């Protein structure tokens, strides 16, 4: 099994400046590169408390490309309806050349109404924009000329530059758990980026089976909150609960939310975060002593997971994250 590092964006913990956060991200990525992790994933987040330092994965990935030597550099995820596919290919072709062919993209439809300040006309049809854009990304990446409308309102055929280093664009499709998205990923022959959040072990097994029927050789990447330490249950408790509460608060500001998140009292929000923490400690999180984490990795492999993207930046200090990665690296040689 491949084991990667994923950033998903904690709050600006402890008042640390954003410049310092970028330094920490680069330090963690260099450590992951040195320790033999498969990839480093960075997300796309906009206008929220959670994920303040991740507005554009291609920009940060360019820095990661020159700061590392062998680790794959991936977007997890890129909200495709917010971008012109031509610009996506141009930006990531730069990163692909800088990294000598180490990039990968996971395409997401987007979900938060505030994100679509950048493209309000695409919000209603965001799923169609994302899925239709996947084949277009592949065509443009291959160097095909594609016709678009120029500034005069007339059609013109363009070929994006620079030429990518890699002949093919490695693509994932991000899913929050909808079985139809797993089927779509199989039909489109993309990999899948999913998470343990929002689904049981049995539900995950069923969705992987749906995907495998259509794409037996595709890669299933699963994000899991991660900290390998004997005292992880105590260490991660408060930071992870604070992160989860911030995520709920973000959901409450989504114009398409049914209002339940906004109606939660402080006490109810605390109880929800406590429940989620206990769930992750029981199943769904790579949290705990090495032996417990080893068993979880084996279980995920048995379910058909090919890669675990270890979500590390949910509020722990950078030095604890780095120490946890060192301990996790010792398990990689034993991973199934």
Please list the strands of the largest sheet in the order they lie side by side: 1-2-3-4-7-8-9-11
CATH level 1 class label: Alpha Beta
Any low-confidence stretches, pLDDT <50, length ≥5? none
CATH topology heading: TIM Barrel
Q: Beta-strand level of the residues, as a percent range? A: 15-25%
- How far apart lie the N and C ends? 6 Å
Layout of secondary structure:
Layout: E1 2-6, H1 18-35, E2 39-42, H2 57-67, E3 72-79, H3 85-99, E4 103-108, H4 126-141, E5 146-149, E6 155-158, E7 171-174, H5 179-188, E8 191-195, H6 201-214, E9 220-228, H7 232-235, H8 237-252, H9 260-263, H10 266-282, E10 286-288, H11 290-303, E11 307-311, H12 318-332
Parallel strand pairs: 1-2, 1-11, 2-3, 3-4, 4-7, 7-8, 8-9, 9-10, 9-11
Antiparallel strand pairs: 5-6
Helix pairs in contact: 1-12, 2-3, 3-4, 5-6, 8-10
Overview of this protein structure:
The chain has 336 residues and is α/β, with parallel strands linked by helices. It has a single domain, classed as Alpha-Beta Barrel (TIM Barrel), CATH 3.20.20. The protein contains twelve helices and eleven strands. Strands 1-2-3-4-7-8-9-11 form an eight-stranded parallel beta barrel, surrounded by seven helices. It has a two-stranded antiparallel sheet with strand order 5-6. It starts with a strand and ends with a helix. The mean pLDDT is 91. Residues 7-307 form the Luciferase-like domain. It comes from Streptosporangium jomthongense. InterPro entries: Bact_Lucif_Oxidored, Biosynth_lucif-like_mOase_dom, Luciferase-like_dom, Luciferase-like_sf.
């Amino acid at each position: 099994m491949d084991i990667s590092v994923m950033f998903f964006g904690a709050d600006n913990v402890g008042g640390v400046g954003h410049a310092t956060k970028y330094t920490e991200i680069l330090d963690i990525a260099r450590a992951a590169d040195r320790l033999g992790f498969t990839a480093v994933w960075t997300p796309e987040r906009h206008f929220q408390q959670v994920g303040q330092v991740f507005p554009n994965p291609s920009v940060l990935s360019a820095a990661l490309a020159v700061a590392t030597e062998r680790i794959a550099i991936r977007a997890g995820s890129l909200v495709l309806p917010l971008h012109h596919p031509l610009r996506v290919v141009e930006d990531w072709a730069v990163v692909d050349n800088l990294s000598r062919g180490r990039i990968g993209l996971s395409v997401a439809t987007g979900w938060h109404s505030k994100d679509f300040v950048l493209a309000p006309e695409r919000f209603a049809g965001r799923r169609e924009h994302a899925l239709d854009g996947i084949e277009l990304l592949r065509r443009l990446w291959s160097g095909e000329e594609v016709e678009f409308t120029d500034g005069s309102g007339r059609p013109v055929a363009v070929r994006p530059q620079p030429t990518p280093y890699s002949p093919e664009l490695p693509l994932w499709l991000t899913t929050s758990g909808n079985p139809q998205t797993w089927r779509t990923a199989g039909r489109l022959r993309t990999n899948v980026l999913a998470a343990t959040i929002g689904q049981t072990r049995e539900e995950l097994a069923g969705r992987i089976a749906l995907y495998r029927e259509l794409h037996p050789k595709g890669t299933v990447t699963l994000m899991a909150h991660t900290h390998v330490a004997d005292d992880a249950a105590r260490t991660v408790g408060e930071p992870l609960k604070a992160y989860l509460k911030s995520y709920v608060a973000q959901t409450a500001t989504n114009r398409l939310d049914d209002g339940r998140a906004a109606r939660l009292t402080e006490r109810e929000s605390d109880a929800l975060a406590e429940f989620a923490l206990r769930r992750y400690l029981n199943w769904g999180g790579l949290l705990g002593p090495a032996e417990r984490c080893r068993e979880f990795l084996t279980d995920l492999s048995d379910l058909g997971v090919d890669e675990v993207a270890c979500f590390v930046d949910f509020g722990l200090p950078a030095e604890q994250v780095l120490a946890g990665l060192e301990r996790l690296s010792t398990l990689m040689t034993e991973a199934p």
